[in-house]
Specification:
The longest helix has 11 residues. The protein has a single domain, classed as Metallo-beta-lactamase, Chain A, CATH 3.60.15.10. It has seven helices and 16 strands. The protein is about 25% helix and about 30% strand. The radius of gyration is 16 Å and the shape is globular.
């Protein structure tokens, strides 16, 4: 398995027979300036989106068309993006599981907000979400943009993810201290990858505090386009 950070909250996850793009915001993402966008999306088999904000969905319908990768997410958001030309995948809802080849993806709650501009106005795009991804005998929890929430209790207990990809930049989501608290209270991660940080000045710029707070977890500060092999 390879987990490849596409900057901000975007990831390329090579797992089983799938190449999943999670919230692949490429154009306009300051962390992807000068990076090889073609390599970032090469061979993509599916696109998963957590919620409607621009830093997660800008350009994804066009990306889906160009790559041929179907797009899936919560019903309102997926329906909007399919109407915008994304290749139709699954418009499912929280608690639902889809099977993508040898990989299972379950939609789980997050605690945030979700809108997109439609016809010059801000439109509701269904509830914000995260994903539990299972393949190769491993389980990944992708939190999406979220605060600490009680739902993490049952997500950790039911799915027992050993890998966490958690929003950690603060201001719009949990900060590093919040992620450390959630990891200790709700999860038993072997590996934890923070995201949604370093992109803008308002966000946290380092995960050093998280690393110190979780000495028994392999906290990996991702580098853009550099594979994390697990």
């Amino acid at each position: 398995m390879n987990i490849i950070w596409l900057g901000h909250a975007g990831f390329r996850i090579e797992i089983g027979d799938q190449v999943l793009l999670i919230d692949p915001w490429l154009n306009g993402n300051p962390m992807m300036e000068g990076q090889d966008h073609g390599a970032a999306v090469a061979g993509a088999t599916h696109i998963l989106v957590t919620h409607g904000h621009f830093d997660h969905t800008n350009g994804v319908a066009e990306l889906s068309r160009n790559t041929g990768a179907p797009l899936s997410g919560i019903v309102e958001l997926a329906g909007r993006l399919h109407a915008d030309g994304a290749v139709e995948g699954h418009a499912f809802n929280k608690g639902g599981t889809i099977t993508l080849g040898n990989v299972a993806v379950t939609l789980v709650p997050a605690s945030h907000s979700s809108t997109m501009p439609v016809d010059g106005r801000s439109a509701y795009m269904g509830m914000e979400t995260g994903f539990v991804i299972r393949g190769e005998g491993r389980t990944i929890y992708v939190s999406g943009d979220t605060s600490i929430m009680a739902d993490m209790d049952w997500i950790g207990d039911l799915y027992k993810p050993d890998i966490g990809i958690l929003s950690a930049g603060g201001y719009y989501t949990m900060d590093m201290a919040g992620v450390a608290y959630a990891a200790k209270r709700y999860f038993n991660f072997k590996t934890l990858v923070p995201c949604h940080y370093r992109t803008f000045p308002a966000l946290e710029q380092s995960a050093e505090g998280l690393i110190r707070a979780l000495p028994d977890v392999d906290v990996i500060e991702p580098q853009v386009m550099q594979p994390i092999a697990l």
